[in-house]
Amino acid sequence: MCEFKVIDKKTKAQVAEEIVILSYSDEKKLLLKDILGISGNLESALIYDVNTLNQTCTLIQHPLINPFLQLQEKISKGTAQISDVERVQSALEEFKKTL
Questions:
Q1: Residues 25-78: pLDDT tens digits?
Q2: Containing domain of residue 79, as a range?
Q3: Are 57 and 85 found together in one domain?
Q4: 14 and 53, same structural domain?
């Protein structure tokens, strides 16, 4: 069995260890489950890299990721609405102000 250390790409900090399952919830939160079956979640994270040789999984965390993933799923299902796109646009506009 492959158990991963989960690392934040930006900070290089270890987020979790001995993780055997990484998956997304219906709300597009990243779920992490360790070898004991204990799970946690990250609100807005994207799996960036998985390396089975050194047993690491690198993540990108940013508040824009979750709304984008929710929109992408609706697009792929054919259920996206203008309000879904506007939600992501609004989040991007807020982010733009911080640059």
A1: 999 999 999 999 999 999 999 999 999 999 999 999 999 999 999 999 999 999
A2: 65-97
A3: no
A4: yes
Closest CA to 47 of 9, 3, 75: 9
Same domain, 28 and 44: yes
Token pair of 85, please? 């796109």
Closest CA to 67 of 80, 77, 58, 57: 80
CA dist 45 and 59 (Å) reads 6
* Residue 74 confidence (pLDDT): 96
| DSSP 8-state code for residue 91 | H
**Single pTM value for the model:** 0.85
- Amino acid identity of residue 62, one-letter, is H
